[in-house]
């Protein structure tokens, strides 16, 4: 209250006359105005929003993990195919070709391997 009476603005979290946690805000507007609200009431409207935010965050995380797993399994499978083909080439199987339809570095490597074999 001293800060409000001195013409400052701000907020305070404290106890009111009922010994309940409250948030008070004060602002000089030519005269002194102090408003207060029970702390439990202040953040009540935010509870559904936080539930929605956590739910969306969880769903987004699960989707991101699923995409990462898909990409890593797909890449690993293609690299395994390239490794197997390299082993066959090392064992003088010059007719072996790789059937990988990708438009990335692995696909380029597979096409180069087929040209080489």
Task: Explain the overall architecture.
The chain has 117 residues and is α+β, with helices and mostly antiparallel strands. It folds into two domains: 2-42, no CATH class; 46-116, no CATH class. The chain contains four helices and three strands; from the N terminus they run αβββααα. The protein has a three-stranded antiparallel beta sheet. α3 (46-90) runs parallel beside α4 (105-116). The chain is rod-shaped and about 95 Å long. The protein starts with a helix and ends with a helix. The relative contact order is 0.08. The mean pLDDT is 85.
Key terms:
alpha+beta, single chain, 2 domains
Distance between the termini: 86 Å
Fraction in helix: 55-70%
Output the radius of gyration: 33 Å
User: Which shape, going by the Cα principal axes?
Assistant: rod-shaped
Which class best fits the helix and strand makeup?
Answer: alpha+beta
* Biggest β-sheet description: 3 strands, antiparallel
Count of discrete structural domains:
2
Mean pLDDT: 85
Classify the beta-strand content into a percent band: 15-25%
Spans of 5+ residues with little confidence (pLDDT < 50)? none
Q: Output the strand order for the largest sheet.
A: 1-2-3
* Extended strand count: 3
Number of helical elements: 4
Order of helices and strands: HEEEHHH
């Amino acid at each position: 209250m001293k800060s409000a009476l001195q013409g400052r603005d701000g907020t305070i979290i404290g106890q009111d006359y009922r010994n309940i946690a409250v948030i008070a805000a004060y602002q000089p507007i030519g005269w002194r105005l102090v408003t207060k609200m029970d702390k439990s009431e202040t953040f009540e409207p935010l509870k559904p929003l936080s539930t929605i935010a956590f739910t969306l965050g969880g769903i987004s995380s699960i989707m991101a993990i699923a995409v990462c797993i898909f990409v890593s399994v797909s890449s690993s499978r293609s690299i395994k195919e390239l490794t197997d083909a390299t082993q066959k080439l090392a064992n003088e199987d010059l007719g072996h070709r790789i059937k990988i339809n990708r438009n990335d570095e692995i696909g380029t490597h597979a096409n180069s391997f087929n040209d080489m074999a």
